[in-house]
Write a structure and sequence with these properties.
Blueprint (H helix, E strand, L loop, with lengths): L4 E4 L7 H11 L5 E3 L2 H14 L5 H14 L23 H10 L3 E3 L8 H4 L5 E3 L1 H26 L7 H10 L3 H8 L6
Parallel strand pairs: 1-2, 1-3, 3-4
Helix pairs in contact: 1-6, 6-8, 7-8
Length: about 190
């Protein structure tokens, strides 16, 4: 298991294709992915608000599968840190507290402005957009990223997706540089 630890923010779990890709990457042992029950509650609450066709029971099952897929993913014991932290949005303090408790070097989030670098640097933490995060993983082990993408595409069976359709899905998740990397290796997907 890698020593590099990242904390996934709730916003990267909201779109299912991105969530599935990030969970697949977390099983590669390139890094340790962490999150909390509070983060689970946040993304499921937001998803249910926008997708009435989904049920709490379905999303509870998704949460359980995520937690089973990534050993040691849940951060505990961070709650006492929350009140001591200051962020532009106080509702984001639980994310930073969990990152500190987990010893994370990176928070993977779309909401980088909610985590000012001058605050995070005190804890030796940075933020990365999901696309930047994946591209950095490519630099470490591009083959593992390709394998995770291929495995995710193979799981899409209802209906199956062509290689290009799959890349289009990732592109819609704002993974533009990741898609550029994968496009050049499309025959491996």
């Amino acid at each position: 298991m890698a020593n590099f630890t990242v904390l996934y923010d709730a916003c990267v779990f909201y779109p299912a294709p991105l969530r599935d890709f990030l969970i697949g990457l977390a099983t590669t042992d390139l890094f340790r992915a962490r999150w909390t029950d509070h983060i689970h509650e946040e993304w499921t609450r937001n998803l249910l608000a926008h997708r009435p066709d989904l049920s709490k029971k379905q999303l509870l099952r998704t949460r359980q599968l995520m937690d089973q897929a990534v050993e040691g993913c849940l951060v505990r014991g961070y709650e006492r840190l929350i009140d001591s932290l200051t962020l532009p949005d106080p509702d984001d303090r639980h994310v930073l507290a969990a990152a500190i408790r987990a010893g994370a070097e990176v928070i993977v989030t779309f909401n980088q402005r909610d985590f000012p670098s001058e605050i995070l640097q005190k804890f030796s933490i940075t933020t990365e957009h999901p696309d930047d995060f994946v591209v950095n993983l490519v630099d470490i082990n591009g083959e593992a990223v390709i394998d995770a993408a291929r495995d995710q595409r193979a799981r899409l069976k209802n209906p199956p997706k062509s290689r290009q359709e799959f890349l289009d899905i990732l592109y819609r998740q704002h993974l533009t540089r990741t898609v550029t990397f994968l496009q050049d290796r499309i025959d491996l997907l």
